[in-house]
Design brief:
about 280 residues; 6-stranded mixed sheet; 5-stranded antiparallel sheet; 11 helices; globular
Length: about 280
């Protein structure tokens, strides 16, 4: 399996009033044409890792690594102009909530078509046809009608599908999905994951799925990284997640509710300061 993404010893640092805050430290992994899940609590560095790959950390943030490479492209050497050419065309990111990620004053169809025009150098008519085809690919029943709607006129599930369509219309090699189903009910969540699964298999893309949901990631992904305090504390095949050895991962698994198993008290995660130091 060819390697799409290589991350070796990644650090992301933000300046603060009381000194630098290290959001990601010593993170290393590779990703091929597969589904990689990244799990952990809020603040563990999952989204920041994805944003570092996209070049979206911000002007004040510092990204350092021994290697950060998409295929043959050295991401550490790219300027902002270089990242603008890369984003959407080779790597795309589905953000968590379409209500805030989509432009509220542009119709959904025009936003998707604009992405196609920017990266594929197509005319207006070709971009519209491509956008309609992409809306159909993400299982929107009436693409002509949805094309002209604005983000506030669609449901959360339809908005998330429109976001996926916009990110995939330029046919990227890698898709980073940051909590793409957290705002959706269980039925729509399953439908959105099925769409992602089909598109990844058909297009042969790599997928990085960032989530809090261990059940979802273990069922959907091929491999799992568990992050704590900016570090990867454990990596394993998704089918072996229940056999995880690190006490943090064991604590997360123990805190999951189980159908048919009533517990008066949900276990609490007992943290060890040594975990943040990599012990």
């Amino acid at each position: 399996m060819s390697t799409l993404l290589t991350v070796r010893n990644l650090w992301v640092t933000h300046p603060g009033d009381q000194g630098d805050f290290v959001a990601v430290r010593n993170v290393s992994f590779s990703l091929g044409r597969e589904r990689l899940g990244i799990v952990g609590e809020s603040g563990s560095g999952k989204s920041t890792t994805g944003r570092a790959i996209m070049g979206l950390v911000g002007a004040l943030g510092r990204v350092q690594a021994e290697e950060l490479r998409l295929g043959e492209t050295d991401l550490l050497a790219l300027s902002e102009r270089g990242f603008r050419k890369l984003r959407g065309r080779r790597v795309a990111m589905v953000l968590q909530d379409p209500k805030y990620a989509l432009n509220p004053v542009m119709s959904i169809g025009h936003q998707i078509a604009e992405t196609h025009r920017a990266h594929m150098r197509a005319g207006s008519r070709a971009a519209r046809l491509a956008a309609l085809k992409m809306l159909e690919a993400v299982r929107i029943r009436d693409p002509e009608r949805v094309y002209g709607l604005y983000p506030h006129q669609v449901s959360g599930g339809m908005g998330q599908r429109a976001m996926i369509a916009m990110m995939l219309i330029a046919e990227p090699e890698l898709l980073i999905a940051d909590e793409p189903t957290s705002a959706l009910d269980a039925t729509i969540q399953t439908q959105v994951l099925a769409i992602l699964d089909e598109l990844v298999r058909v297009r042969g893309m790599g997928l990085m799925l960032i989530s809090h949901n261990l059940h979802l990631v273990s069922a959907f992904c091929d491999r799992v990284l568990v992050m704590y305090a900016g570090r990867v504390v454990e990596a394993c095949d998704s089918g072996r997640l229940h056999q995880a050895q690190h006490p943090y991962t064991r604590g997360l698994l123990a805190a999951l509710p189980e159908l048919g198993h009533r517990r008066d008290i949900l276990p609490q995660l007992q943290r060890d300061p040594a975990w943040a130091a990599g012990a």
